Amino acid sequence: MANSVSNSFIISYVSLLLTRVLAIQLARLSGFSPIITTSSESNVEYCKAAGATHVVDYRAIPYSSLPEVVSGITSTPVSNIFDFISSEDSQKACWKTLAPNGQLVVTLQPVVGQPGTEAEDGKRLVQVFGNVNLDQNKEFGMSLYSKLTALLEAGAIKVRTATFYEQQPTDVHVSTSQIKSRYSLMVWQGYLKVSNSSGRKRLAV
User: Do 90 and 73 touch, CB atoms closer than 8 A?
Assistant: First the structure.
């Protein structure tokens, strides 16, 4: 993304807060600015603490209004957008918001643009699949994880934890909303690690 027309960045329509915050932190460390993200009102300050320069309340702003809202925030052409949800409506809104010669990253089947092919205005679409165990991603994964420990130790990347109080579950195959008792949670590398005084369980998410 460093070769795009500017270092503006939008992290758009993320359902999982931790994923959004990790993306914000990596964008900040990579020198992107402004960094605009969508979030619920209750998480605005948390996103800003992670490095977002602007936060848009996705509950108040429909997809169709995204281009106008972003243009009201910054006059800088938006050259990079990461659309985590990648629904048809969100992709169309992000594609319309994207500046010429910019690139949109999606996580699901593209409904705008063509991966590997530039549009007439130079826009590019990239479809990603976040699994570093795939052959095509192993080199990137090794590079990322070789630096991850130092970034965490230095506080450059911070992982949020949550504590739940109530009764201990009897089945480890439960959603986070069903997890009870005093569990400390950390989502990383596609797994939910659950720990308490009796030991650790590892849940796929």
Answer: no
